[in-house]
Amino acid sequence: MNRPLPEVQSAFARYLTERRGEAPSLIVGDEKADAEERMDLYAGAYVTRLIEALENHYAGLWGLVGDEQFWELCHRYIARHPSTFRSIRWFGDRMARFLAEEEPYREYPFLAEMAAFEWAQGLVFDAADTDRVTEAELQQLSPERWGFLRFRFAPAMQLLDLRWNVPALWQALDREETPPDPERNEVPVVWLIWRQALDPRWRPLEVDEAWALEQARQGAEFATLCEGLLEWVDAANAPLRAASFLRTWLQHGLVAGVEVGAEGR
Q1: Averaged pLDDT, 125-130
Q2: How many CA atoms lie within 13 A of 31 on its CB side?
């Protein structure tokens, strides 16, 4: 009896991810391989392809744990989080949380941070292109309007809190050098990860710049940034400090648009 296609697809997918179910009964065998052997061969190839995707996403994580442990880690991740994506590009999106929660990986918290760092690099690499505001464009605005400026930021950027020296670990592994020992900071450090041209880049932010950038991304006006920076600098230097941050963001290509608040029009 013919089965509806959605039922066949569901049975097929269940066997690929769980290695059980009725799918073999829906497959025709021959003298080379029976139905179950054919399904197992396909399921093995499917898992191998998922592992290849994780290898591409998490080369640094792979380098930290080694071949054998990474293979086991991938199998455990696939069992816990079977792919639900049409595009394999997005498979592996829960790796950082998986490593933070799953034994024995959660005993090594730098592994979860490495996964988060690598996933953020992928996000900024794939993010859509946007226009970039230049310093020359801002210089055309009259000084009395600056306090009311709001900024729209490019999607090709991420802010990530890291306690461990994972950027240094990743860079050494990428260069095929011996990585330093994992080191934990007393407090989290905010890292900016962005794309410039086609290259993901990153740098740590001072506390005041991290605060200012987050506020600006939420729509705060330039005057609000200056006022908030009084927690770190005096009133004479707050506007200069805010302007220096803005200039750096412009140079990084982070600012995609500027608008003037209603009171400054």
Answers
A1: 94
A2: 0
Q: Which CATH number fits domain 108-265: 3.30.70.120, 3.90.930.50, 3.10.20.600, 1.10.260.40?
A: 3.90.930.50
The two beta strands, 184-196 and 149-153, are unpaired
Q: Which residues pair with 192 in a beta bridge?
A: 159, 203
Q: Where are the domains of the chain?
A: 1-89, 108-265
Predicted confidence (pLDDT) per residue in 54-87, tens digit: 999 999 999 999 999 999 999 999 989 988 888 9
DSSP string, 32-77: S--HHHHHHHHHHHHHHHHHHHHHHH-HHHHHHH-HHHHHHHHHHH
d(CA 122, CA 100): 20
**Vertex 129: Cα angle to 126 and 133 (nearest 5):** 140
pTM: 0.86
The pLDDT tens digits of the residues spanning 162-181 come to 999 999 999 999 999 999 99
Supply the DSSP symbol for 152. Answer: E
